[in-house]
């Protein structure tokens, strides 16, 4: 067992490819010491919780969490952007949390249908039913839309056409060229998002959720369920949430902490220097304001988690995160498989 933790992962409850049990077993086989389940606007059902209860006493410890999609803090209005907030050590049966999840899942379906209409306008062969089938009918997200697109081989030619259009446009636009080159470096997995499935995509079909609590409301939901609220993967919103505003949120205790271990796939391409600098700045900020530091693999697949663990120079930075969270006294061990003796041992 290593000291590596992953306080950010996804299962089939949202856009991951493994069930809770499959993800847990993989994490244990890889030596992950603490694993948090943080599905998008979703928490484990009572049946899943019963299964997880049977895993108490194992070497790998689990923590119940979620990843809430919320809007920017109110002082940045009317600007809007999807901000991801990790909640850890929370009660999966909390009434307000469950109400949020129900509204958010309905909003995800509405958004998906709008995106599908846009994709059809670009010539893609895809339906809302295709996306729901790819998701398993629980929580539908952009990865499910990508999966639905790829199930129809006719869509490959359309995607390639848009890629070539972007390459050509980049010949006269340096901003487009920079985004295109970065997409090529990161590989085909990123093509759909850069080409048409993100707010600043080349041929964007993206829509925000029609229901998003603002950041302060989302933090209140997490804290009301007994959890701590952590800002996730800052690099995805650095151009929408300035560092000075993030620091203000920490000073005013409107966030409990920030992820400082994230973005491993940015290493090895032209985004590496920026993310190294960004993560260092966030760590310094967290230390300055006595904020919680967290992070992890953001794993959606077996390959994601294995890649994260095998790159120990990165994943080992998470050692002690859970111990430090417990030391704050802000959370209860109730919604985790940590017991009292293990807490004491971790803190020694």
Describe this structure in words.
- There is one protein chain.
- It contains 15 helices and seven strands.
- The protein has 348 residues and is of the alpha/beta class.
- The protein folds into two domains: 233 residues, Metal-dependent hydrolases (TIM Barrel); 93 residues, no CATH class.
- Strands 1-2-3-4-5-6-7 form a seven-stranded mixed beta sheet.
- Helix 6 packs across helix 7.
- The chain is globular and about 55 Å long.
- 42% of the residues are buried.
Key phrases:
single chain; 348 residues; alpha/beta; TIM Barrel; 2 domains; seven-stranded mixed β-sheet; globular; disordered C terminus
Give me a quick take on this structure.
With 348 residues, the protein is of the alpha/beta class. It is built from 15 helices and seven strands.
Q: CATH topology of the largest domain, which one?
A: TIM Barrel
What is the number of beta strands?
7
Radius of gyration: 20 Å
Main beta sheet strand tally, sense and closure: 7 strands, mixed
Given helix and strand content, the structural type is alpha/beta
Number of domains: 2
The span between the termini is 17 Å
Uncertain regions: pLDDT < 50 for 5+ in a row?
341-348
Strand numbers in spatial order across the main sheet: 1-2-3-4-5-6-7
SSE layout and pairing:
Layout (H helix, E strand, L loop, with lengths): L4 E2 L13 H11 L3 E4 L8 H8 L7 E10 L12 E6 L6 H27 L6 H8 L6 H9 L3 H17 L3 H13 L4 H5 L19 H10 L3 E4 L11 H9 L5 E5 L10 H17 L3 E4 L6 H9 L1 H4 L5 H7 L12 H8 L1
Parallel strand pairs: 1-2, 2-3, 5-6, 6-7
Antiparallel strand pairs: 3-4, 4-5
């Amino acid at each position: 067992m290593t000291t590596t933790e992953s306080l950010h992962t996804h299962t089939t409850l949202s856009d991951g490819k493994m069930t809770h049990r499959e993800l847990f077993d993989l994490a244990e086989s890889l030596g992950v010491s603490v694993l948090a389940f943080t599905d998008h606007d979703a928490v484990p059902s009572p049946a899943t919780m019963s299964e997880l209860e049977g895993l108490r006493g194992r070497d790998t410890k689990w923590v119940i969490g979620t990843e809430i999609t919320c809007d920017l803090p109110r002082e940045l209005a009317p600007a809007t952007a999807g901000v991801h907030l990790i909640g850890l050590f929370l009660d999966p049966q909390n009434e307000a949390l469950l109400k949020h999840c129900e509204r958010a899942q309905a909003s995800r379906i509405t958004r998906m249908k709008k995106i599908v209409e846009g994709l059809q306008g670009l010539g893609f062969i895809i339906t809302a039913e295709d996306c729901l089938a790819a998701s398993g009918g629980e929580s539908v997200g952009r990865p499910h839309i990508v999966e639905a697109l790829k199930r129809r081989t006719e869509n490959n030619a359309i995607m390639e056409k848009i890629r070539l259009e972007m390459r050509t446009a980049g010949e006269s636009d340096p901003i487009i060229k920079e985004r295109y080159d970065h997409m090529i470096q990161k590989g085909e997995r990123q093509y759909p998002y850069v080409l048409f499935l993100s707010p600043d995509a080349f041929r964007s079909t993206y829509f925000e959720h029609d229901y998003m609590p603002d950041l302060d409301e989302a933090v209140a939901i997490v804290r009301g369920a007994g959890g701590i609220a952590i800002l996730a993967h800052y690099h995805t919103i650095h151009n929408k949430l300035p560092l000075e505003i993030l620091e203000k949120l920490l000073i005013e205790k409107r966030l409990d902490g920030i992820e400082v271990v994230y973005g491993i796939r940015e290493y090895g391409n032209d985004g590496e220097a920026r993310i190294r600098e960004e993560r260092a700045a966030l760590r310094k900020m967290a230390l300055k304001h006595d904020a919680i530091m967290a992070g992890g693999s953001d794993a959606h697949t077996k390959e994601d988690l294995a890649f994260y663990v095998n790159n120990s120079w990165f994943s080992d930075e998470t050692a002690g995160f859970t111990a430090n969270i417990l030391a704050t006294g802000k959370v209860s061990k109730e919604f985790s498989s940590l017991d009292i003796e293990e807490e004491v041992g971790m803190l020694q």
